[in-house]
Design a protein that fits this description.
The complex is a heterodimer of chains A (about 450) and B (about 425). With about 450 residues, chain A is α/β, with parallel strands linked by helices. Chain A has 2 domains: about 180 residues, Periplasmic binding protein-like II (D-Maltodextrin-Binding Protein, domain 2, 3-Layer(aba) Sandwich), CATH 3.40.190; about 200 residues, Periplasmic binding protein-like II (D-Maltodextrin-Binding Protein, domain 2), CATH 3.40.190.10. Chain B is built from 17 helices and 17 strands. The chains are: A alpha/beta (about 450), B alpha/beta (about 425).
């Protein structure tokens, strides 16, 4: 009897071994997930073959939004349509309605429309429980929370962040103390102007801002100081206030000094590498260029802030955000994929393969420097964001029209054809008209 | 007997428990604290997109110490740079691999990878043959680039011309183009200039221009003149058109019968709003060796230097890159559309059948103006002069005969300068 039982057990075990150990799996029918993304080629560039090997039971369909919205570009460190107009948010909403993608990516500057339309799943609790999503810097999570009025529906894929690169040899040679993190705009512009005056004979600039025109810089400094220059819905601008006039004065002085440089057309990065600029406010891409110029001794500090105690950046921007469609029939699988797309591995790979590093991952732990430079400066400031429920900010076309007008005006002040008081008095009447005409 | 059954049962139980345990998943592996030093000819970002990110995903925690090649170096200088950098693993172009293997700087991968772990028969025979020397395997190429001739089936049907096949010579191809030249459709849209087309024909047929033993210029006049004559007349009648960087534009618009392009055109054809019925064959071959292709060539070669301090990890990385997962992953992310050398993957690229390409040998005839033989100055001077004479002939300013004579004189002058420079 014992023998028979043993033989039965033996046969069973052999059968189990033969069947159970085989790695041959029944082919499963693949689940299809649709992802709304800028384009097929961008999707391949950003995620490549990772998804195919990670999610073997899922097939991915990419719906392009760039064919409806046009492609985007960075202008004054804002991710805007290449066409020069505004993103067509109505077209985007229609596309989502038609295609019902499971995961939705969209340009960050249309986040207000997307969040107001209530299309996205609330991922607040999921964010707290997903190990893949841990490690995103808290300041960006907080920003998403602010935009979502306390709830998190979207996550940013990257940040466009700037820092001030400074040339150690110039600071040392001119006897200036090296700059530090969290300096405010007043101090930085003062330092810039001092260096420009000191370096005039050698054609050395104090501070160059390649991502901001002089007008954009003027408005950004005001924003950093939490100043507003127009009132939404009212025909009113505030450039005549003392705080704005004070910024204008500093900017005009910088403009005059920069205009007297012998080679003003030289690219900021080249000027910095050639020792012709003491400081440059730029993105991470300059660091990549500097890696090929080991002879340049440089350091990096945070972008200037509005007030000495501020920890906010007025220019830090997101390129695109993503969330899960509230109507997806595949919530669990969509969540798993979305978490992976926003996880550490994808962020690292995307950064590794990023040819033009204007943007950085939202995980500061991925950025390391073998020479212990302060690269964390790109991450020390928090983004300035508003709740999506607040009135819509100025359209891109209206803002561009105002900037274009001011770009004609500022040289007139610099050439003393207009005083600051005269200029701002004219702006009080002209700028509201421009805004009205471009709404 | 009962005892034997007991032992078998116990052994089976143990084997079941142990044997059913799968190979550790990627997530379970940990390479934290380990650093691999890799040499690459690509810029950092391209290396990561093509291979590096896959390696990091497969070896969690691993750190890559990347050495990017100085792109100004070639030949012996390049090899010296590689050796001086002391990498654990080398990613290189085929000529650099050849140099390293010839000088015995590389480790035999057959021994290192082990027969149980790595089966060369799973890969394209030719790739394995190109990487082998006297029974030893010194490198592996996970991917190959493919370049060939696309043809428009509808347009050829309309002209009642049969579709071209692999093994067609340049002479036959140019003859076909002349036959199809109707003054309306472009017969052949190419990315090549007249001089590159002529040198492509010369290289494929392995025409010599220098007799090194006697240090003499030796051009076979009838071969060169016939090719010059044909090229000049086809360019004159606009049967051949070069659009520079806009390769495949006319073909995609259905205005060209043939075009030469890499696999990236397959993707464009698949996405075309107005679909075209097309075929894809290898480039024309040489008269002497019709089975030898210039259409399939190794993308990058992975090898392990003899002096590598991390041979085991390097071989694990090569295995991963050569694996099925590697083929799928890299197919989705590579900056240049190409195919895996795994036989289960290499016959198809997004619907393009590549069987004909693999029926030819992968051996690439040496260019007759090899950079290792001639200085860059010689090659540059030669191409500038050659293009100038061909363009003059196309403009009818000189005859093809005069064009040939000028080219012969050009080679003679440039070679004399080269010899003087060496002395």
């Amino acid at each position: 009897m014992k023998r028979k039982i043993m033989i039965v057990i033996l046969v069973c075990l052999i059968t189990i071994s033969a069947l159970g150990c085989s790695n041959v799996q029944e082919p499963e029918e693949k689940l299809e997930l649709t992802i709304l993304y800028s384009s097929h080629s961008d999707f391949k560039r950003d995620f490549g073959g990772q998804l195919a090997t990670k999610f073997k039971n899922v097939s991915f369909k990419v719906v392009e939004y760039s064919s409806y919205l046009g492609t985007g570009m960075w202008n004054n460190l804002k991710y805007v349509p290449q066409s020069g107009g505004d993103w067509d948010t109505e077209a985007l909403l229609s596309l989502i309605e038609k295609e019902q993608p499971d995961i939705i990516y969209f340009p960050a500057s249309v986040s207000s429309t997307l969040l107001k339309s209530n299309l996205l799943l609330d991922s607040t609790e999921f964010l707290g429980s997903s190990p893949e999503l841990s490690g995103i810097d808290s300041s960006y999570i907080e920003a998403m929370e602010t935009m979502g009025d306390g709830r998190i529906n979207v996550l940013p894929d990257s940040i466009a962040s700037q820092a001030i690169y400074y040339n150690k040899a110039i600071f040392d040679g001119y006897g200036f103390q090296e700059p530090e993190d969290f300096m405010d705009w007043d101090r930085v512009l003062e330092l810039s102007n001092m260096i420009s005056e000191r370096g005039a004979g050698e054609g050395v600039a104090g501070l160059l801002t390649p991502n901001h025109s002089i007008v954009d810089l003027f408005l950004q400094i005001g924003k950093a100081q939490r100043l507003t220059w127009y009132s939404p819905g009212q025909d009113k601008v505030y450039f005549a206030e003392d705080s704005w006039k004070s910024i204008l004065e500093s900017i005009i002085q910088k403009y005059r000094l920069d205009s007297s440089l012998p080679d003003a057309s030289q690219q900021a990065s080249e000027a910095f590498i050639n020792g012709k600029a003491a400081m440059v406010l730029d993105t991470f891409h300059l660091r990549d260029k500097l890696m090929n110029h080991r002879d340049v001794q440089w350091g990096v500090i945070t972008e200037p802030v509005g007030q000495p105690t501020s920890v906010f950046s007025s220019t830090l921007a997101f390129e695109s955000l993503s969330g899960i469609n509230k109507n997806t029939p595949n919530i669990d699988q969509a969540r798993e994929v979305w978490a992976y797309l926003n996880g550490q591995q994808v962020a690292r790979n995307k950064h590794n393969a990023n040819v033009h590093r204007i943007t950085l991952p939202v995980r500061s732990n991925l950025i390391k420097d073998n020479e212990a430079r302060n690269l964390n400066a790109f991450y020390k400031l928090k983004p300035m964001v508003n709740s999506s429920m607040q009135p819509d900010s100025l359209s891109i076309s209206a803002e561009s029209a105002v900037k274009s007008y001011l770009a004609d005006q500022i040289p007139l002040i610099a050439k003393e054809e207009l005083t600051i008081d005269e200029a701002v008095a004219v702006w009080e009447t002209e700028v509201p008209k421009i805004l009205m005409n471009n709404q | 007997m009962f005892k034997v059954a007991q032992i078998i049962t116990a052994a089976t139980l143990v084997l079941t428990l142990l044997g059913c345990a799968n190979t550790p998943e990627v997530e379970d592996r940990d390479y934290s604290g380990q650093i691999i030093r890799i040499y690459t000819p690509d810029v950092e970002q391209f290396f990561y997109r093509n291979y590096g990110n896959f390696i990091l995903d497969q070896f969690p925690g691993l750190e890559i110490d990347l050495i990017v090649a100085n792109d100004q170096l070639k030949g012996e200088e390049r090899m010296k740079e590689i050796l001086d950098a002391s990498p654990d693993l080398v990613v290189s172009y085929l000529p650099d691999f050849d140099d390293m293997a010839r000088e015995s700087h590389l480790t035999d991968l057959r021994t290192l990878l082990g027969e149980d772990e790595f089966d060369p028969s799973l890969y394209a025979d030719d790739m394995i043959r190109l990487m082998s020397r006297e029974g030893s395997l010194y490198g592996l190429s996970p991917r190959v680039n493919v370049f060939g001739i696309f043809y428009n089936k509808d347009l050829l049907d309309r002209k009642s011309v049969s579709y071209p096949t692999a093994g067609m010579t340049w002479h036959e191809f140019l003859q076909t183009l002349a036959y199809l030249d109707d003054g309306e459709l472009v017969a052949f849209e190419t990315n090549s200039s007249p001089s590159h087309l002529l040198m492509g024909i010369a290289s494929t047929n392995q025409w010599t221009i220098i007799d090194y033993r006697n240090q003499e210029v030796v051009l076979n006049k009838s071969d060169w003149l016939e090719a010059i004559d044909r090229i000049v007349s086809l360019y004159q009648s606009k049967a051949i058109v070069s659009l520079g960087g806009n390769a495949g534009k006319l073909f995609l618009e259905g205005k060209s019968l043939f075009t030469d392009a890499p696999l990236s055109l397959v993707d464009k054809l698949n996405e075309a709003q107005e679909p075209i019925e097309w075929g894809f064959i290898p480039e024309p071959v040489g008269e002497e060796n019709r089975s030898e292709s210039r259409s399939v060539y190794a993308d990058r070669v992975f090898s392990i230097p003899v002096q590598s301090e991390n041979k085991e990890l390097s071989s694990e990385i090569i295995e991963a890159v050569m694996s099925e997962d590697g083929a799928i992953y890299i197919d989705g992310s590579h900056t240049v559309p190409n195919v895996s050398t795994l036989e289960t993957h290499n016959n198809d690229y997004h619907g393009a059948n590549l069987e004909l390409f693999w029926q030819q040998s992968m051996s690439v005839p040496q260019s007759i103006l090899s950079k290792t033989t001639f200085s860059e100055k010689f090659i540059e001077e030669f191409y500038v002069g050659l293009e100038g004479y061909l363009q003059a002939a196309i403009r009818n300013e000189i005859t093809p005969e005069e064009c040939y004579t000028s080219i012969e004189e050009l080679v003679r002058t440039a070679y004399e300068k080269e010899i003087q420079g060496r002395n």
